[in-house]
Structures are given as C-alpha cells and as structure tokens.
Amino acid sequence: MTAAAQPRVLIIGAGMSGLLMGIRLLQSGNTNFRIFEKAPKAGGTWRENTYPNLACDVFAVAYTYSFEPNPDWNYRFARGDEIQKYFERCERKYGLAPFISYSTAVTEARWEKDHWEILTASGERDRGDVLVSAAGALHHPNYPDIPGLREFAGPCFHTARWDHTVDLRGKRVGVIGTGSTASQVVPGIVDKVAEVHLFQRTPQWVMPTPDRKVSQAERARRHRFPWLLRLQHRLGLFLMEIFSRGVLGNRLLLRYLEAGCRANLRAIRDPELRRKLTPDYPAACKRLVISEDFAAAIQRDNAHLVTERIERIEPGGVRTGDGHLHELDVLVLATGFAPYKLDFEVIGAGGRRLAERMAGSPLMYRTVGVPGFPNYFVLFGPYSPIGNMSIIENSEVQANYVLQCIELIGRGVLRSMNPREDVALALKEDMRRQIRNTVWAGGCNSWYLDGNGEAVVYPFQYAHFRRELRAPLLADFETT
Ligand code: NA7
After folding, report:
1. Best of 77, 181, 380 to mutate for ligand 1, by most ligand atoms within 8 A of CB?
2. CB of 90 closer than 8 Å to CB of 75
3. Closest residue to atom 21 of ligand 1, CA basis
4. Domain spanning 3-140+338-479: which CATH class is it, in words?
5. Do 142-213+218-336 and 3-140+338-479 fall under one CATH topology?
6. Phi/psi at 331 (nearest 5 deg)?
7. Residue 383: which of 466, 453, 472, 448 has the closest Cα?
8. Which of 58, 202, 298, 335 to mutate to test the pocket of ligand 1 (most atoms within 8 A of CB)?
9. How far is residue 257 from each of residues 19, 110, 182, 254, measured CA to CA in Å?
10. Ligand 1 lining (C-beta closer than 6 Å)
C-alpha cells in the first residue's frame, strides 16, 4: 500500500482489541492511524481490574493473539497482572507507542459527509476515513441502586476500582454480587479478613475447572518448541468452542456442564448452604462462573453467605430484609458493569446518535457495523460474545474483516460503506429466532441482555461467525 493509499484510521481504546487493530494495520503496511486512549497506559480491562485473585476464565494458552503465543504464563488460567504485562509487552514489541495518544479521552466522533471528525476532552480535533470503536464491553462499573450506599462509613469501592490503600487484614468485609468477579474475590480475601459476608441476590452455577501453576519445565518446553504452544493454543480454543456448543443449544453438552456444576455443589457439606447456592435456571444462562476455589472459600468459618434481600446500606453495614444489620468495616461492590456503554458521543450520517440506535435493542450489522454510521466499525460490541469463547479470538476475526474494509477504501474501490438497514434488520431477526434455541433464553437475568431483556449475544456456532466475517459483502452496503 502506498502512503497516499493509506486510509486514515482512528481507533478508540488501547485495550486488547484496539492494540490488535493497530498491529493488524501495521502488518498490512498502513501507518496512517492513531489510537486514542483515555488512560495513561494500555491494557483495557486488565489495567482497570486489579482485585485480589483476578484471573481470566479462558485457558491461558488460548488467551493470546494467535500470532503472539505466550510461553510464560504462570497458571493454567492466567492471573490479571501477567495478562496486563502481556499486552504491555505486545504494545512495545509491535512498536505501537508512537501511534497511541495516552491520557486522551475522545468526547465526540461525528461523520461529516465523507470522513470522521474526532473531538477530545482537551479540545483537540482530528479527522480520519475510518473510525474503529475498541472501547471495551465491560468497562463502566455498575453501581447498585441500593438506598444508603453513600452513607456507608468505611471504605466502599467497586471491584474495577479496587482501593489498594485499604488494608483488609482483620476487617469485616461485605461483598455484594455473586458473578465471576465475586467468586474470585472471596477466595482471594477470605484468608486475610476477619469475616467476609457475601450478599447473594441470585445463585450462580460454578464450574470447578482445575487450575494449577505451570512448572518451570513446562514453560521451558513451550519456549523450546513453539509448535507445542501453537498446538496448545488451538486445543484451548477447541475446548472453548465445544463448551460454546453446549451453550448454543447442544443439550447433551449442556447436561454435561450442569453435571460438573452439580458435582461442585455436592462438595458443599452443609445442606442449607448447598440449597442456597443452587440456581433454579439452566447452567450457563448467566455467564458460567469458572472457579475451583469458591466452594471451599464460602465454607470457611469466617465466610457467611447472605441471601436475605438487601434493604439498605447504613453507616455501620448492610441491613437486610429480616431487619438484621450485617456490621462491616469495608464494602466491596462486585456488581458488574453497564455493558457496551460508551463515554463518547458518536454521531452518524444525518446527525443520528449512536446512543439512540443502541438504546433498548441495539441494531448491529454482523456484529461489526451499525446502519447509518458509515466507515464505523466496532470490535467486541453487542452480539459479539459466543458462549465463554476467548474474546481475543472473536476480535481477531472482526479485526481481519475491518482490515479488509479499510483496504477496499485504500484501493479506491469505494470511499464509504454504510451497512444497509434492511439487511441488518433481517440478520437481527435471524439471530432473534436462533437465540430462542440457546441457553440464554433460559429466563435468567444477566449482562448479556439488552434494555428489552433480550440476549445480545451471537447465537450461532463459531464456524458461522468466522464464515460471516470472512470478507465484506458489498451488496450489504450503501457505498459511495
Ligand atoms: P456480573 O456477572 O454481571 O455479576 C454481577 C453480580 O452483581 C450479580 O451477582 C448480580 O446479581 C449482582 N448485583 C448487581 N446489582 C445488584 C444489586 N443492586 N443488588 C444485589 N446484587 C446485585 O459481573 P462480574 O463482574 O461478576 O462479571 C462480569 C464478567 O467479567 C463475567 O461475565 C466474565 O466475563 C468476566 P444478579 O445475578 O443480577 O441477581
């Protein structure tokens, strides 16, 4: 690609998918791009989350870019800090730093006839041919709407804003929420604190997938035989894909998953505690919690599961519906995220606002585009999650697709491509129909659901996703 034919690409976010887009552009010969990152360093979710016992629930060998396997993972399920280091290393190795504007928050992106105009918080403007949103799916903490939250006298923080200045030793700590995060936090702090009170609104299915430390010898082998690591990467992805088939409607696999979770519940000795921890919806309807140590942690003498409804928060602790005050020194909000929320305004053709398009039930085109927003692409946005599949793998498929669109612009085949609304609506109907066959239609509440209570996940097999995004279909677009 000649310099003149390099479309200018503006990327928002230097997390896993923003870095990936940058690397793919460099590999294709395009150096005409800029990544806007509001924080002072890269890493996205792994930069934001630093809570105790943070780990990824995807096999570490599968949680890398396909072109950058990592022989140095220390655990079967990588810990948060080593994942953060991995992405920082990728940023350095691929020479991305000169392309990233750190501490630069985008406040507005506007389509102006044939290009995107970007405005930053400091008032700077930039323009580009293509806009890529790589802003992260689970980024904005969900602060629970519980009366009195601000009245709590001790430290109170969300898990994604962990306050490391607070010494938890000997403290009575309350944890609200029982998702993947809480099930890591509780084992991570139970040995340190005087008491941990876990406030559960809904029980979760927990899959006790065994974790272990990777031996020095195995790491050396992975260094010595890169083919072994590549094989393990493929195998890890294959296992996640099999898992996804269960979630997507294979009843046999789903029964197998649920059996694993039930075996985990049988390890709970107290029948009353076991009853309280048993969900009444199908396994994997909410994102399945992967934890080997949660069951043991919640049975510790200093751990208390509270299933009474929270009535209010008071200076001294949490008051539940039975009138009991659970006295606490520290309160941790493991209450998840407002998914896909953007903190910048995107204004498309004819002044249309993206926030309005996404309110209620979002309209996406093949998970990467939005009708009315020409040359706008989204990495890991609504409809992107496929079961517990590695998000990196999803983003690679999407980034390769986006790269092909950018190359079409670079070759002068077209200047702008706007996904056709009728096509996007028809595809959405297909997805809606298919979602009814999946476990997400199992009647539970989760971050997978949109404002109308419908799952905005990818309901087809992974191979279908790959096929759909193999190459842009020009007939699906209004082009100029
Ligand atoms: P999740 O999975 O969204 O879990 C949030 C938890 O917080 C869940 O147990 C919720 O209960 C609970 N919650 C939320 N609001 C409240 C209020 N107001 N009162 C009581 N309890 C509440 O977030 P995580 O951070 O654990 O995991 C997010 C993803 O990170 C996960 O899927 C993996 O991909 C990694 P509910 O179940 O809604 O009754």
Report:
1. 181
2. no
3. 177
4. alpha beta
5. yes
6. -125, 125
7. 448
8. 335
9. 34, 46, 21, 5
10. 138, 144-146, 176-182, 201-202, 287, 310, 334-336, 445, 447
CA 319 to mean position of chain CA atoms: 32
Q: Which atom of ligand 1 is nearest to the CA of 447?
A: 3
Residue closest by Cα to atom 2 of ligand 1: 179
Domain boundaries, the chain: 3-140+338-479, 142-213+218-336
Strand order in the sheet with 106-112: 125-128, 115-120, 106-112, 345-347
Q: Ligand 1: distance of its center to the CA of 411 in Å? A: 46
**Which ligand 1 atom is the nearest neighbour of the CA of 146?**
18
> Could you tell me the distance, in angstroms and rounded to a whole number, from the CA of residue 336 to the centre of ligand 1?
4
From 49, 54, 79, 180, the mutation candidate for ligand 1 (largest count of ligand atoms within 8 A of CB) is 180
- What's the token pair of residue 447? 């971050």
**40 CB neighbour count, 10 Å cutoff:** 9
Give the distance (Å) from ligand 1 centre to CA of residue 184: 12
Reading the chain (480 residues) residue by residue, the pLDDT tens digits are 444 489 999 999 999 999 999 999 999 999 999 999 999 999 999 999 999 999 999 999 999 999 999 999 999 999 999 999 999 999 999 999 999 999 999 999 999 999 999 999 999 999 999 999 999 999 999 999 999 999 999 999 999 999 999 999 999 999 999 999 999 999 999 999 999 999 999 999 999 988 999 999 999 999 999 999 999 999 999 988 888 888 887 888 888 889 999 999 999 999 999 999 999 999 989 989 999 999 999 999 999 999 999 999 999 999 999 999 999 999 999 999 999 999 999 999 999 999 999 998 999 999 999 999 999 999 999 999 987 788 999 999 999 999 999 999 999 999 999 999 999 999 999 999 999 888 888 789 899 998 888 899 999 988 999 999 999 999 999 999
* DSSP state, residue 477: E
Global pTM value: 0.95
CATH architecture for residues 142-213+218-336: 3-Layer(bba) Sandwich (3.50)
How far, in Å, are 245, 247, 257, 399 from residue 251 at the CA level? 9, 8, 10, 32
257 alpha carbon – ligand 1 mean position (Å): 21
